[in-house]
Amino acid sequence: MKPTPRRLLRPLAAFTAATGVLGLLTALPGSTGITPEPAAASATTATVFYYTKTKNWAAYNLHYAPDGGSWTSVPGVQMEAACTDWVRKTVDLGTAEGLQATFNNGSGTWDNNAGKNYDLGTGDITVKDGVVAHSDPCAGGGDPDPTPSPTPGDGGKATVYYSTEALGWTTANIHYQPAGGSWTAVPGVGMRPACAGWWKREVDLGAATTLKAAFNNGNGVWDNNRGADYTIGTGLSTVKNNTVTGNAGDPCAGEVPDTQAPSVPSQVTAKVDGVSVVLTWEPSTDDKGVAKYQVTRTGGTRGTLVTDVGSTVLSDANLEERTTYTYTVKAVDAAGNVSAASAAATATTGEKPPAPAPGKPLGTDPRKDPIYFVLTARFHDGDSSNNRGGSQHVKSGNAANNDPMFRGDFKGLIQKLDYIKGLGFSAVWVTPVVLNRSDYDYHGYHGYDFYKVDARLESAGASYQDLINAAHAKGMKIYQDVVYNHSSRWGAKGLFTPKTYGVRDSQWSWFYDEPNSSFEYDGLTVEPKSGKSYYNGDLWSTAEPTGNTCVDWGKPTQYTSPEGYRIYNCQWPSPTSGMFPKAFYHQCWIGNWEGEDSRSCWLHDDLADFDTESAPVQNYLIGAYNKYIDMGVDGFRVDTAVHVPRTTWNRRFLPAVQERVTQQHGAEAAKNFFVFGEVAAFVNDKWNRGSVNHSAQFFTWKERKEYAADDAKAALEMYDYEQQQGTGNQPTSTNAFLNGNSYHAPDHSRFSGMNVIDMRMHMNFGDAHNAFSNGKDSDDSYNDATYNVVYVDSHDYGPNKSSERYSGGTDAWAENMSLMWTFRGIPTLYYGSEIEFQKGKKIDCGPTCPLATTGRAYYGDHLQGDVRASEFGKVDSATGEVANTLSQPLVKHVQRLNEIRRAVPALQMGQYSTEGISGGMAFKRRYTSAGTDSFALVTVTDGATYTGIPNGTYKDAVTGDIRTVTDGRLTVAAPGKGNMRVYVLDGPGRIGTAGAYLK
Predict the structure, then answer these.
(1) Which residue stretches does the UniProt record annotate as biased composition, category Polar residues (predicted)?
(2) Dihedrals phi, psi of 850, to nearest 5 degrees
């Protein structure tokens, strides 16, 4: 799960925290003295401004339909000149609240927002290169600044230059208040382009000598100097990177106007995939730099389409079948100079590909499959068109790094399955795939529609089903991360989604988007009226909604937001306000993380806690996850498992999984459908602070007695009973242990159906010896510790609850890996650890720092190039940067470890013992089944002596050394840190090639 602080968020604190997260650059300035925002135009009119510089059409027409009304006749109404680079048209909407719009040149060339049309509201609206904003770019009339700029000290006027170089805005407004006067109406007045990266506005101050100011992009993203506003004097001032320079020189004065167009794009190539076309071309050159490209498509029945692209790739999807399309590309620089059109590229589409068939789990013993864990959105970007930065893109610093939170996708993962296979992993654990809804939700743990895959992860030909099928075709499993404990703070679509109180007044209009009943949030599609893919207009209401249960709906409280705005009841999701019905959600905040309330209260204000003992909730979740079982996933990693009562797992959710897998895929698949839970216990002792109910091993067992038929009562009865029984009266198992040298059939009759992540080893992996000692000390308390999932660090924590990715050094990593790959349990590696990716970096700091500086950084740069692998642990070919990645010493180490583990069944599924063995990390393992008897002696780093072992011939899988034992005794010298010896009785001898550690 996404880590959350162990603190209590009361309603005011929750709202404050949330507005900090939602807060754009910072929130709307001018908390005092703002007059209510007047409409920029009549409530029934819209003045539409359209940017002309990059189109250079001979004429501009607006073709539109008021919401609920009819379209104008083609080509629409002619627009009129407004000011330099802009045309405009004011239209009467009657009683409509907006309009659908497209633009054309009157001769068959259209801009229809890539086929989606523009969805516009009322008032002043700008459409510039596909971006919709809300301002008047020509406020003041005429051409930009026809009068000379005032000289420094010239009273009554201020000439303000604002730099958007670091922000990437396409429009800039200045919202200001002369000293002693009133603030302008939000969003202020439009600034005009002055030169590359600079916007300019002359302000008449009257008798004042200073003004307060803030800037915005017309779409709700603000720069108000971190809440302090900017103080600007008369004369010429510049504002750049939160610094005001008074009496400054004109930043554009020395700049020679850029009149040179970029070079013509070359090598335009169109590749067809069904009804999709991928267009690529070589970058153009320009004396000041290319800002974007314009792709013109002709063909089909939809007319000519012009699309702006920021890269040299365009994915054009959902085209007509068996239709020829022609594409040309122009380059545009920051000054708006446009190159000539490229040579044309043509492509003829085929038939729309059928939906991929559902898969079937591979159905083999999960202990055979080492796991590679990826944050899908941060692994590899196969399709840039589904990248999304969300509300925190600028504030987090991700925008400055061109690193949107949703960057990687299933297409990128499919493209790099051979990389994972080449490392030797045969199972991939992916973060939750359901549609998320939150401010920073790339990790997937804020589920909103549990029945729908998040569109920001899918592409044409690369759906989630395609990923499952592609992995299975390579003999690789997919383990899906699932969440049963909570939804996003906006509830769960199809079960319950709350309405919050919200009013678009002079204080809160920046916070609440205009409602659009025809738009459905999917995380990917931009809602045109707000210009956001993270649109929230469907989540709030000024009028009290039907069936509202929130107390004191919309009444003002005594509290204010950090900006000084009045906070209202029911303005923010909370468990204690009555907003979330008791039938679906719990009604309290956690007070004691090792108490009963940790299973029946909210973890955090952004994680609405399901009442998992409620039948409607159980049915909703079981139905949702049945969908993914039907698709053929091979197992579930269960997030926040400790926050759901064991009785509910054992009565409802785990049996439902087994029943569905059996029904769809058969009994053998159900037997090996791997469920492993995150029972977070961040301590070094066997039982989590003495509480059995909060310890990982507790969840691997069935109940020991009958409880009330009512699930909520049963959960409390079980909790009390097991707490009274204490740690000394819990079931024990020998399933992980040899009986002398003999393997025995494990007894899984009391197994709950849930295996777990080995939290104790995880917490102690600061040193491999500690992890080994602590791990084996706990193993009698699990139902079967050979199924434990073992990792060093993850997307949450490093060892000892460190908030950084493991940085113990390459030798220590090699030692940890050697232990994980030979000791009981299933070795698991967090993406990039094979090259110590982001070692020592803070794993997660939310939107307070760029993702590129964290342990969740984008990994795809290390995967550039081509890689092919036909066997696990062996790379057939690799080119580009991925070849350098694969040459790293830990990569070679993990490849050989996987080769050895795959060849020795005892290392995969064997029971173990340390009886009769001396040495720091030494043990013996055996696995026996029909036709197989595998016995291995292992020592990691240290020397060891084994006594009482079977006589016979032992061969070391690392060196090939052969020992003949006649007296039940074998002594092995210390191989060195990270190295190991694996003497296999009647074994195959040396496996793989010597490397930096295994030699």
Answers:
(1) 384-401
(2) -65, 145
Per DSSP, 353 falls in state P
Judge contact between 676 and 791, C-beta under 8 A. Answer: no
Concatenated DSSP letters of 354-374: PPPPP-----S-GGG--EEEE
Strand partners, 979: none
Q: List % helix, strand, coil for the chain (3-state, nearest 5).
A: 20, 30, 50
Give the model confidence (pLDDT) of 537-566 as tens digits: 999 999 999 999 999 999 999 999 877 889
CA atoms within 13 A on the CB side of 25: 27
| Contact in structure between 822 and 894 (CB atoms under 8 Å) | no
Residues 868 and 876: beta-carbon distance below 8 Å: yes
Q: Which is nearest to 562 in space by CA: 322, 228, 266, 152?
A: 228
Distances (CA, A) of 171 to 189, 307, 974: 11, 19, 67
SS3 429: strand
Could you read off the pLDDT of 129-150 as tens digits, one per residue? Answer: 877 888 888 875 434 333 333 3
DSSP-derived 3-state class of residue 424: coil
Q: Taking Cα atoms as reference points, which of 7, 10, 8, 2 lies closest to residue 559?
A: 10
Under DSSP, is residue 599 helix (H, G, I), strand (E, B) or coil? helix
Q: Which residue has the tokens 């970058």?
A: 283
Question: ∠ CA 173-175-177 to the nearest 5 degrees?
Answer: 155
Spatial distance between the Cα atoms of 210 and 227, rounded to a whole number of angstroms: 18
Q: Is 17 exposed, middle or buried (0-12, 13-18, 19+ CB in 10 A)?
A: middle
The pLDDT value given to residue 257:
79
Residue 814 DSSP label: H
Q: Take residue 674 and report the two structure tokens written for it.
A: 């791997």
Give pLDDT tens digits for 85-102.
899 999 999 888 889 999
**Amino acid identity of 175?**
H
